[in-house]
Specification:
Blueprint lengths: L1 H31 L2 E6 L3 E7 L5 H12 L10 E6 L5 E7 L2 E7 L5 H19 L2
Antiparallel strand pairs: 1-2, 2-5, 3-4, 4-5
């Protein structure tokens, strides 16, 4: 009897967790909300953003313009490392409505870090404008 109750409790908790996360993802990526977080310490600079899927093309074009990447981001789904012409490198995960950019500051020069940090600040404004 205890095992059955334990299994039912775990199923209930798992279902509640799944539904709440699925609802949040749908709510955020269908234009009702925007979430952008910037994490920065001595080693890592990271931008995480969730936004309306219909803004994806505009955001990707904006990133291409800011980083001078000649359509690397446009119309792309990515999950991997990118190395730019100036040898700056960072990890990108980009899907409709979702963006993660992570840079190891120790592997890049200060100019690359400041360029990515500037992108993060401008991205905050771009995501919140109509």
């Amino acid at each position: 009897m205890r095992k059955v109750l334990l299994v039912l409790a775990l199923l209930f908790i798992g279902t509640v967790w799944f539904v709440s996360h699925a609802f949040r993802w749908n709510w955020v990526t269908n234009g009702r909300n925007v979430s952008i977080r910037v994490k920065e310490n001595g080693r890592i600079y990271e931008i995480r953003a969730l936004y309306a899927r219909n803004k994806t093309y505009r955001i990707q074009r904006f990133i291409d313009e800011e980083l001078h990447t000649h359509d690397v981001f446009a119309n792309a789904r990515m999950d991997g490392d990118i190395v730019l012409d100036d040898r700056s490198n960072f990890y990108v995960q980009a899907y409709p409505g979702k963006l993660i950019i992570r840079m190891d500051r120790r592997e890049n020069d200060p100019a690359a870090y400041h360029r990515l940090k500037s992108l993060g600040e401008k991205l905050k404004h771009k995501l919140t404008e109509e």
